[in-house]
Hints:
The protein is an alpha/beta fold. It has twelve helices and 15 strands.
Amino acid sequence: MVSRKIEAEKKERSISHSRLRSRYNIGEIPKYSFPEEGIDSRVAYQLIHDELNLDGNPDLNLATFVTTWMEPEADKLIIENLHKNFIDHFEYPQIKEIEERIVNILAELFNAPAEARFAGTSTIGSSEAIMLGLLAHKFNWRQKRIKEGLPYDKPNIVFGGDTHISWDKFARYFDVEPRIVPISETRFNIDWKDVVKMVDENTIAVGVVLGTTFTGDFDPVQEINDSLLEIKKTKGIDIPIHVDAASAGFITPFYEPEFKWDFRLEQVKSINTSGHKFGLVYPGIGWLIFRDENTLPDDLGFNVNYLGDEMPTYTLNFSEGSSMIVAQYYNIIRLGMNGYRDIVKGMMENAHYLAQGLIKTGKFEVINKGNHIPVVTFKPVDSLKISPFEVSYNLRERGWIVPAYSLPKNAEHMTVMRVVVRENFTKDMIDIFVNDINRSVDKIKNRDLKINKMSPRKGHPVS
């Protein structure tokens, strides 16, 4: 959200570029108001290009889960399809066909039962996919309550304090009581016993996370599934699970294929994943898969005919770009199962390599060594008495972007750092990074000494 600039901030109201002004004879360009006249396309490009140089280098952004590199052929396909609005199935039917192929591929990847008629859709990202999936569960719960003549004004949803903010948004935006399962100082995911205590007949769904944003941990999905099956058997309350696999959906099937987290578990009714994370596609593309089309209420679908033909739509956002759907399909047919396995294996090996490198310095406590997904979380050892925020800030001098943040409630006293090991973060880069973070800690520890230590020859502080 952007608020109106106050006058004090608008003293420099124009974009000034002396080189371009003299070469192309342009005047001042207003910064916060619509310019009266246009400028040469080359000048417009250069002005914006130069300003965006102030952004960080995506290759050194170790904070983001989002893909920052694709092959040139994928880039070409993206450019060729940027101008296609996906919702217009009448004009661009082949894009819709490709989306349907990907939904089928992902349903199979997530082990949808052979006898089930699954359903799914592309989304802008996992945030939209979570909203749509949980809305389906809310509608199903409400319809069942109405049919049984029971109150339906107090729905609740149970999820952990380790979830993405999208879950809190859903609860607030769609008027559902959030029942948040706490984490602890020694456990950074939720306990199935706590889940059991919070669910009741008004619970629309239980949310579990595979690969939390905070630490990369997995919630105990199988234990939660088993406990909900017991509740269904003994109390007759059928509570679905929605799995937020934004981070792990394109990792676990290739790295731990025997690990049961998906539609092999009876109560798992819907799954979301982010194609723009370890699906290896630029933002933004997400996917939502239901194990059975009956889980998707008819009330959530709409049909429109003002784009040239009668067509269904099931998204929060009407318009959607086509290029990232195409890019996802490119990766799938370009890499295949073996290609994804190799890339995932490489990322996981590099995550373990990074964790060992940090441990060897003796200066960091590694909290997650890349156990399930290529995410390493760590913090300076307590004896150093150094804040992770200081280390994070200091690393920016070398271009590295590494977040420092406090953990959720009940562990909020702990501040950690996180590195997402993406495909382009090689062992050579890891060596450089470990060396840089090691030097950063030394620099922070010795800063007072360096400031006070004077050079006898020049009389200046030694840097």
